[in-house]
Every structure is written in C-alpha cells, then in structure tokens.
Amino acid sequence: MTEPVDFYFDFISPYAYVGSTQIDAIAARYGRKVNWRPVLIGITVLKIMGLKPLPETPMKGDYLRHDGPRMAKAFGVPFRQHGFKGANSLAACRSFLWLKAQDEALAVRFAHRIFKKLWVDGIDITPPESVAEEAAALAVDTQAMLAAIATDAGKKALNEAVDHAIKVGAFGVPYVVVDGEPIWGCDRLWMLEHWLAHGTWDGAGTAGLAKAAK
C-alpha cells in the first residue's frame, strides 16, 4: 500500500509535539508520506465531547504535567513545560494551512518551528506576531500570510480542516489514520510502525513488548 499516513495534530498538545518529531521518520522507513492535518482540540474536546481541557481536569491535569516531560524523555526529544494558560493555536493552524496550499514541505518545516517554539523554547504561540516570526525565518512573506489568515477564506480553511478531523473521529492528538486504521497517542506509534511493516495486527502486542524491552 502507498496511501499517505494522515497525521492530525494541534500545536498546543505536548503529545502532538512528541508525535511530530517521530511521524515522518516512521512513515519514511516504509515508503509512506505523511499528510499533516491540523485540528483544534479545543473544539473536539470542549464542544464535541463536552470535556474540560486536560490541564484543568482534576487528577488528569497533574498526571499530564508529570507525563509530558517523561514522554519526551522516553522519545529522546527536548521539552519544556511552559505553563501558559489560555494559549491557542488559531493563528498557527491557519498559517500552516495557508503555507500548505502553496508548499507542503515548507508548511511542515514551519510546523516543526512552531512546536519547538512552544514546547522547547517555552514561548507563547497565541499572538499572530509570534507565529509570523517563525514564518519569517523560512523567508515567508509574513505580511501576506497574516493578511490571509484574517480573511474569511483563511478562517474557513481551518474550520473545514476541523470538520474533517471530527468526521474521521480525531477526538485527541496526535491521531493517525493509516489505511483506514485509526491510532491515537504518541505512546501508540509503535502500533503504526507494526501496521506499516505487516499490514495486520497479528502479533502486534508481542512486537510492542519486545521493542520496549530493548
């Protein structure tokens, strides 16, 4: 099979950040490309599922603050617990889609810079100006970008992306769909790799345990 791997992400998720550092390499090992698809978990979690944000959920919030850093350490990637309240990825996601429509590879490079800005450098990505700084570093026309994401078309593009994510059931991030198989969480990327290697779930549990034991 040669269908791309759909990778649903939101910049504000530490788990999506960890997943973003792994997804392309995993897919490439099996000759697959990755289709990066932004989603707003504030919509899927708050409005669709009717749940509180994880950081504000009793007990879960404490677990998240402990688990984010250790998950990053488990995958060997840098991480900083930023502690921002109310941070959102509207400008970043709209900008990503605007860039993707022109140059998909450039959009992915931009996405990596945004993830790093929030989860490694500890800088808020909510202000459009903060997002524009990362685009400027890639020689993007930031004036054109900021103007585009403020238009109805720029807003519609993200609304449609979120609607699509909801349609396929992306209730959290990272959320991967490969050959019709949904996989949720960076801690299940080993399942993605098993599927890409074998095209079946037979023996997946044993394979996961063996990999963890190495």
Description:
The protein is α+β, with helices and mostly antiparallel strands. The chain has one domain: Glutaredoxin (3-Layer(aba) Sandwich). The protein is 55% helix and 8% strand. The protein contains eleven helices and four strands, in the order βααβαααααααββαα. The protein has a four-stranded mixed beta sheet with strand order 2-1-3-4, sandwiched between helices. Strand 3 and strand 4 form a beta hairpin. Helix 5 crosses helix 8, helix 5 crosses helix 9 and helix 10 crosses helix 11. The longest helix is centred in the first third of the chain and has 16 residues. It is globular, with a radius of gyration of 17 Å. The relative contact order is 0.18. The mean pLDDT is 91.
